Amino acid sequence: MRPRIRDASEKLRPNRASFDDEGKFHRKHLPPLRTMFGRWRKWTVLVAAIWIQASTGTNFDFSAYSSHLKSVLGISQVRLNYLAVASDLGKAFGWSSGIALGYFPLSVVLFAAAAMGFVGYGVQWLVITNNITLPYSLVFLCCLLAGLSICWFNTACFILCIRHFPNNRALALSLTVSFNGISAALYSLAFNAINPSSSNLYLLLNSLVPLVVSFAALYPVLIKPTVDPTPDNESRRYDSHVFTILNVLAVMTSFHLLLSSSSTSSARLNFLGAIVLLVFPLCAPLLVYARDYFLPVINHRFNHESSGYVMLNIDELKSQKASVSSKIGYEQLGTAKEGNIVRLGDEHSFRLLISRLEFWLYYIAYFCGGTIGLVYSNNLGQIAQSLGQNSTTLVTIYSSFSFFGRLLSAAPDFMHKRFRLARTGWFAIALLPTPIAFFLLAISSAQQTALQTATALIGLSSGFIFAAAVSITSDLFGPNSVGVNHNILITNIPIGSLLYGYIAASIYEANAIPEITPIVSDSIVCIGRDCYFKTFVFWGFLSILGFVSSLLLYIRTKPVYHRLEQDQVSLTSSYKDLDPL
């Protein structure tokens, strides 16, 4: 059977480059234009998802205009914190997008999200520019609606990746989710390029840009998933190369945004460069074709070297080798059952999930790690104001390093051959910079370098946690239940936003100078390092608790990832036996 499989595969690969009898290398012929266009059209869907994610992380720039909003509304720091909580509370209703997808097409869900964001942020812009006057309760509802729109956008992007990249959905999802972290940096560049003197411009951009991007992404969204006519092995190799290029472009985008925040060059030129880097991924599939055609020798050698990506079609292996099929499936994620005992890695119901000690260790680690980083970003406006710093610069630094942290969340997949460490181990490592950053802020927050360094560390840590959490939830509690179980996990975000934000706001107001407290309104301004000193110390000790919890989680989940590694080794070896290169 094995020779026949190999012969059949060679017949299906007429375009592969090869050596002749004289040792000369023959250039690989380009596939038909229809095939090239079909492949390119599939990648436009991923690029559209990247654009949507890059423009809809609008909750990260709240701190850039929060001080202005607080002044216009004449509210206290505690009530301002409630507005930030309202935006995070929208995540608690994210399940509504899944219900909507059961009744409406994806394009309707996408534009419903755009409409919610347009109204939610648009009304706030009208309020902050004094065009209309609304009571605090309606502004709260607008923040809630704007936060809900982000969840609907995320659902639309997830569905696009799953439908069009069924074999590589993990890579597609991790890449698109990473771009959600650069929204604040992109809007900061646009803010500096258009009108750097008006912070209310952020709300106008939050309202209009996602709507415009939704129209730009409409054609890829309407594309129906197509079957690639090329052989599976050839298609996987091609996809691997395109994903490599896209990740390189993502790293370049991250560094460009980071350097632009401290660059003295034209703000409009920096913003134009960011737009070019976001559009350039459309050329990635064409670059792979060009490399295959013009550099055949390099391509031949590259194909025989190990790649950072492992793309295996498990369904194909099940149908071709029955002896392997009994060992793959959910066991690939560390599943195993002994009698009626459900072990880590199996599908977990709600009752079973909340009865797991590992879940609560995971919950505490997230609650005392990534959620604190998110609350810190919500307070960056007041932190910068109290220390006499530029909030736009801090927002850009946080956003850029959050994006970089999200990209680093793929480290377990890239470095598993050289550095064998469970994903929960990487999770614990990612939490370590957070307490260091907060204690650095407590000691020397008045120094600009220390403030920017700590902001970068917190952004890097929280970005990694946000991106890696979905994979960890899938690994530990079952891939089919990840949608429900992960939504249960992230209930800690609105809880933490309310609790941590309230404590920070209370300490802020307690240290305000009475002489500058307004008499007419409730708005209080605090100046000096004492405004957030106790808050930084409190968050620092909490993040230590989160780090300890993540270490305990790593110790208890090592066997799960050991089984995962063993199954991947057996799966890869079986695949090589079936289809040798």
TrEMBL record:
Keywords from the named record: Membrane, Transmembrane, Transmembrane helix
Lipid bilayer topology: Multi-pass membrane protein
Domain named NFD4 C-terminal: residues: 347-560
Gene Ontology CC: one annotated term: membrane
Membrane-spanning ranges: 43-60, 103-126, 138-165, 171-194, 201-222, 242-259, 271-290, 359-377, 425-444, 456-477, 489-508, 536-555
InterPro entries named among the record's database cross-references: NFD4_C (IPR056555), Nodulin-like (IPR010658)
Domain spans labelled Nodulin-like: 42-285
Intracellular or extracellular location(s): Membrane
Top-level taxon: Eukaryota
Primary localization class, coarse: membrane
Pfam families per record: NFD4_C (PF23262), Nodulin-like (PF06813)
The name this protein goes by in its record: Nodulin-like
